[in-house]
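Bug #77: duplicate submission created two jobs. Keeping one. Sequence:
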Amino acid sequence: MLKTLLGLNTDELCALVQEDGEPAYRGKQLAEWIYQRGARMFDEMTNLPSKLRARLEEKYEIQRSQIVTALNSRDGTIKLLLVMHDGSKVETVGLPYPDRFSCCLSTQVGCPIGCIFCATGLSGYIRNLTAGEIVDQVLAVQEAVRNQLFKIDSRNCRIDHVTFMGMGEPLLNYEATVKAIQLLNSEIGISMRHLTVSTIGFVPGIRKLMGEKLQITLAVSLHAPTDALRRQLIPKMIKWSVAEIIDACREYIRQTGRRVTFEYCLFDRVNDGIAEARELAKLLHGLNCHVNLIPYNPVCGTAFRAPYPKHIRAFREILDDAGIQITQRTQRGSDIDAACGQLRQRTIRETLDRPLV
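Kept job's structure:
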C-alpha cells in the first residue's frame, strides 16, 4: 500500500527523503510542489531528478481528490463536490470577495451530530477526513480557479481565509483538524488569524483546543439561547447545557485572549422572536464575543423556512441595544445548493457522477 504524502509537513517530507538517501532540501521542494503548486503527479515536479521521481512513484502517492461537480452561483460563490480515494464525496465552497477569498472546508464525510435543519445531518455519517483530505479542498478550489473553471470577479484569486464550517463537526475529528490548521498556516501560508473553526458546542473539544494556544477564531453554533429550544434543533447534542457551553467559551477567551463568535441561524417562528433575542442578549452579557446572525438557507427535506426581514431587524436591534456586536451573514449561493451538504445530498439522490475535469 502506497504511503500518502498530502498531509505531511515540510519537516516530515524532509525526513522522508533523507531516509531514501536524498538531501533535506528535496523535501522542501516536494512540499512546495504539493502545497504551493498543487501538483497531482510526481512527473510535474520538474526540478526533482527523474530517478527520484521514479522512486517516489513506486512508494508514495499524493492522493488528491477529483472534482465531480463544480457549480458557480450568480453571486460568485463556488461549490465543488469532491470524490476521495475511497469514493466518499465531500463538499467545499469558495467565497470570493473584493478584499479576500474565503474557503469553507468539510472535516467529515457526513456528520454524526444530526442537526434537524441541516442537509449534511440528513445524510448521516460515514467517516472522518484526514488532515490531507481537509487541506486538499483548498487546493481543489485554488486549482479550479487557476484552470478558469469559474469567472472570479475579484482582484484577489488566492485563498487567504478558511473556515471549518462545511460538512461535519471539526472537534469530533480533533487531531486531523488541528493538523490541517497547522498545514494551512505553515505550508500554504494562510494566517492563523484568518482561520475559523466552527463547533456545535462540543465542550471537551473547546477545552482541549484552548490548550493549543492557536491564534484562530472559534465559532460556536449556538442557534438557541435555552436548553429546551436547543434540544429541539440539535437533539443529539444534549450532554452539555447552554450554560456549560458558555462557561467553556468564557474559559477559552481567558486562556487564549481571542474573542469567540457565536453563530445563530435564524428560523422563521422557531428561534427568531423577541423573547429569544432577549434571552440571547442576557446569556452573552459581558462576554468578549460577537454574534453572527445567519438567515436560514432552506434545505429540501426539512420543514424550516427562512425568517422574514422584519424579524431579523427586530432581533438585531435587541442585541445591538444590549451592546453585543453583530454581523449578519449575507445569503450566498442559494441557486447552487450552497448550504452545507445540499449538493452531496442531491447528487447521491440523483446518482449523478459525471467528472467535470
